[in-house]
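Feature request, filed as a ticket because there's no other form

It would be nice if the structure record came with a short human-readable summary line next to the tokens. Right now we just get the raw output. Example of a typical job, pasted below so the devs can see what we mean:
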Amino acid sequence: MTRRARPFGPERAPRLDLLTLLGPAPVDVLWEAEKAGWRAFVMGHGGSGYRRGSARDQAWQRGFDAAAASHDPVGLML
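Raw output as currently delivered:
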């Protein structure tokens, strides 16, 4: 006679907390700065508001330069 595995009962089922899974994710400040640089190019602003030479300023500049090199910066704006 073969043994069959019993399905998980409600007391043995793994618990998933949907609020943890669907809750807000941590903010990536460099990604936000890069998006801000892209938006600044599209809106016609030319200067970063971040401290010169900081990581956020460099990310902003990457976004600005990427939008400048793009064939459709408005269509690809996040």
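Something like this underneath would help us a lot:
Residues 4 and 57 are 61 Å apart (CA to CA).
The mean pLDDT is 87.
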